[in-house]
Amino acid sequence: MDPDSSGSPEKQIADLRARVLRLEAALRRQGIAFEDETQAALPSVRQIPVQEARPAPLPATPELPVEPPVLLQSTIAAAKDDRSLESRIGSQWFNRIGILAVLIGMAWFLKLAIDNHWIGPTGRVIIGLIAGAALIGWSERFRSRGFAAFSYSLKALGSGILYLSLWAAYGLFALISGSAAFAAMIVVTAFNGNMCWVQNSELLALYAIVGGFSTPLLLSNGENHEVTLFSYLLLLNVAVLVLVVLRPWSRLLFGAFTGTVLFFLGWSIRFYSDAQFERTAFFLSVFFLIFAFAPRLVRLPNSEGPLSGADGLVVVGLPLLNAAFGFLGFYAMLQSTGAVWAQPWVAVAFGAFYLLILRLPSRGALRTSPSALSALHLTIAVAFLTIAIPLKAHGRWITIGWLVEGAALLWLARRVASRLLRGLALIALVLGLAALIVIHAAVSTTIIFNQRFGTYLVSVLVFAFVNRLASGAGGDSEPEFAISWPMTGAVALLIVNVLILVAIGWEIHNYWWFVRYTGDWAVMRDYRMYAQFTYSALFMIFGAIQLAVGFWKRSAFLRWQALILLAISIAKVFLVDVSQLSQGYRIVSFLGLGVLLLAVSFVYQKDWLNLRGLERHPQ
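User: That's the sequence. What structure does it adopt?
Assistant: Structure tokens below.
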């Protein structure tokens, strides 16, 4: 307290009463209900005798914030933690079950009244409307006394009875037309939306959304009303978007998206035809755009910090689901109309859109994109561009497309220093490498100048570019468990050498395979021997070249690759060539291997790179 040295005891007591009232209000906002005993607990000003003499001035103390004391706060938190499960069961689960039970009871009562002809159709509808409106009005009494959650439940119950009554007036008794029932239900939904706005209640907004999406189901007559249905859903989604822009109610977006997708899928399965392509594409585009921009428009409590719960679901889950919803919708419609040629361009358009939305600056209602959302938009854009390649290309062009895409992304990742972009580039390169292994080009009688060798040549050039790109990038600041630039360069160099061996090996196989069928019996008989000798020569020559380049570039990594390849050559000569080569080829194979190994041994004994010194004095 902050007593006034110049004030009277009456003034001090009045200040004390005001502080206690504010303290109780703060506790009520935390869910603690109090009986209004302030008047009884505090003595009346008139009951305190006033002395003639003024009291001595009290020392001034700083005014404390109007919050519960620390000890009281900890006690309340402990009580909440100890009774959290009990509180949820009693106040939430039983509440929802009670709403469901009352709705079922009301439905059975209406059925019983119909079966026994107790009251006429008009009377039944009027009773339902009065009961629903009365419950909504009665709920305000509980809200004014601090029981907000129970008040919202009564509002939901009353709204449900209003919806059921209007549905009965249209569907059971035919008292009103479908358009009148539709308009009345829109009024109920708008009233619920207004209440959630005035009372600042996200729970009421959720009830309003449920009621809004229930309206088309209640009034459905099994006929196709595409424009009416999707226009209504569009208005509902725009209303939800306005709410999440002005209030931090992110979970409303996910509810609206779920309802929209379910209605769109249900309608498409039953009613869609190629004649409705333009209208359906328009509505699908508008729905997609609403939920694509929504994560940038929603009011988040902390856009740069860690996101959890509904906020994390909207920032991470909604963009992924919306991208899949939009693309698969267009893909299916184009497949139905036979315009398959347009499917890859749709994927490219989606990728370009997500790159565009990634670059949009914050302006007006468009808020700054959270870091997680920016990374997700970039990932989705690259994914669509990657999907477009197999949709458009075939055979070897899929391999070339993914490899070139990976190299381009890696170059961009180095330019902008993006670790995420580097990871996406490596995924594209892995896809291209897998496609190179899985997708076999047509066998050709032409050696070297054929599709398969050309594809391998492009792959070698791409990974050589990756090696050169990674060699010029630093890796000192790489985080733990990350694929560093030096590691990327080393793996790319290893892949280059393996691809060269495999490409030339395929050409050797092709050459001797077709020569075998020239009709020359001697050639057919000695086919395997010629092929094996050529493989041995390839391994030796390529190993020698690798070793020479390793000494020239002073690269231990290249020299070790060469030594391993020479070891494979040794094993092949002694285990395979001895049994399959003729006497002359066997002699040439062993002599060639021996001369090569002696030359390698001489080079290492000369110690041109001072390897012994490095071993004695490691740096």
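The chain has a mean pLDDT of 78.
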